[in-house]
Amino acid sequence: MKRIAVLTSGGDAPGMNAAVRAVVRKGVYEGIEVFGINYGFAGLVAGDIRKLTVSDVGEKIYKGGTFLYSARYPEFASEEGQLKGIEQLKKFGIEGLVVIGGDGSYKGALALTKHGYPTIGIPATIDNDIAGTDFCIGFDTAINTVLESIDKIRDTATSHIRTLVIEVMGRDAGDIALWSGIAGGAEQIIIPEKEFDMEEIANTIRIGRERDKKHSIIVVAEGVMKADKFAAELSKYGDFQTRFTVLGHVQRGGSPTARDRVLASVFGAKAVELLMAGKGGLSLGNVENKYVENDLLDTLKNKKHITDPLNLYKLSQEISQG
Ligand code: F6P
Asked: What ligand 1 atom has the least distance to the C-alpha of 223?
């Protein structure tokens, strides 16, 4: 293999730049030409492709976002879009592709694989909801960003003896809420994977107030309920001086943590190795501290992302009473 390409797609995640950098640097180290595709699959279909040099990826490792830009591009679900994409890759003499992104991006990678085009997926989404890996690129940075906010919100909640509902990202998975909630000492963590009872939550806050507790922090994953609605519902069970905060896209930005940069660097280099070995249709993962490769089809269709392998939800209930 003499020429490969890399793209970032879907919601951006801190550490995507570090992954692109690793693909380019490892490729060049192995004597391969690496091309960057702008704007994900949209740029692929449009032929927005350029060669990347070692210098092009300098000063990128510490930057959030993605310098290759990203896009959500549902049009790539059509066979027509996929064939156009492959045509563009062939036009540039590119023999293999690295796709960095979340589940939507993986669908594109799988489609290319089904057309026989060697494609490797690198999991990058702050939601951390890709099957076959304990951690996706961007998750560690996002939970640290959320944690910073929880710590600040706690200050003001305590000053006013308030209940603060904090909405975090996570459409289908509660990973961000769970990890940041545990780290931030939240009293309640509400995730799509677990049922919750508003009356019980209200009782727990009451018990806390009775022992002179000054604040209650409730972290809610956006996939369960919007924070304003949650706060309004909770207020029906008592006057807890409830306020809410929606953290939103601040969670997707910022300089990646060391953990995300290392994960991204290893995944990037491994993707190049796999393509060089003539492999495709694989997704990279890190499971119990070991680097693994999973079948792309399995990752998307047959396996399910496990949100709580460490049983953190139970732990939060045990150590965050009232
Ligand atoms: O990247 C995943 C995610 O951050 C979700 O948690 C969130 O619901 C969604 O992206 C927001 O997407 P967009 O930025 O396209 O509105």
From this structure: 8
| Percent of the chain whose pLDDT exceeds 90 | 97
Please provide the CATH number assigned to the domain covering 3-138+256-301: 3.40.50.450
- Model confidence pLDDT, tens digit, residues 261-304: 999 999 999 999 999 999 999 999 999 999 999 999 999 988 88
Domain ranges of the chain: 3-138+256-301, 142-252
Determine whether the annotation assigns residue 73 to a binding site: yes
| Closest to 1 measured CA to CA, from 271, 218, 200 | 271
pLDDT in tens, 152-169: 999 999 999 999 999 999
Catalytically active residues, by annotation? 127
What distance in angstroms lies between residue 2's CA and the mean position of ligand 1's atoms?
35
**How much distance in Å is there from the Cα of 11 to the middle of ligand 1?**
6
* Nearest residue to 170 via CA among 242, 108, 227: 227
Query: In the CATH scheme, what architecture does the domain 142-252 have?
Result: 3-Layer(aba) Sandwich (3.40)
Residue 223 is assigned to a ligand binding site: no
pTM score above 0.95: yes
Supply the ipTM of this predicted assembly.
0.96
- Sheet of 3-8: strand order equals 49-52, 33-37, 3-8, 96-101, 119-123, 282-287, 290-295
